[in-house]
Specification:
mainly alpha, Four Helix Bundle (Hemerythrin (Met), subunit A), globular
Length: 170
């Protein structure tokens, strides 16, 4: 199974983040919505920080620094359907939530670019990944390189919906 469609989707969604970033008024970027929740700034910082961390885990799988573990059936469903369970508000794990900070639009743009640069080499090396070599995800359990890539795609798409909710609050 080729990873090309997932890479294409990730690039497309990341481009959407870049476009949205340019459209967000500067005065709203770091301001939290009236109804609570994260600001645009915090969403951008979270999504690209976590995407970079996910690339690190993906790289560990490719380089053989994982474990041979099974992937939980619920995680397989999430990866198959390409979305988190509906009607279930997922909270970020505490260890990752503590990493969320407010950043500037310039820092957000830099994070997007850094992610795209670090993603690029995996387009060629993904095919070399041993599907049995896995590293732990805090919610989904053990994932292999392809599954980490799919998680990045799903997570990016999930938070685009959150940005739309923030839009409505202003």
């Amino acid at each position: 199974m080729s990873s090309v469609p997932v890479f294409t989707s990730i690039h497309k969604v990341t481009f959407a983040y870049k476009q949205r970033l340019a459209q967000i008024p500067d005065e709203h970027f770091q301001r939290n919505p009236r109804n609570g929740g994260w600001s645009y700034s915090e969403v951008y910082q979270h999504i690209f920080d976590l995407s970079l961390l996910s690339l690190y885990e993906l790289d560990k799988c490719i380089s053989g620094h994982g474990k041979q573990k099974s992937t939980h059936w619920i995680s397989r469903l999430v990866l198959f359907f390409g979305r988190f369970p509906p009607l279930m508000k997922l909270k970020v794990p505490a260890a990752l939530g503590s990493r969320v900070t407010k950043i500037s639009k310039e820092e957000a743009s830099d994070m997007i670019n850094k992610f795209l640069v670090q993603l690029q080499p995996y387009g060629k090396t993904m095919e070399l990944a041993n599907p049995l070599m896995k590293t732990p995800h805090p919610r989904l359990g053990f994932l292999n390189a392809r599954q980490w890539l799919r998680f990045i795609e799903i997570h990016l798409k999930h938070h685009l919906k959150q940005l739309k909710r923030i839009d409505k609050s202003f």
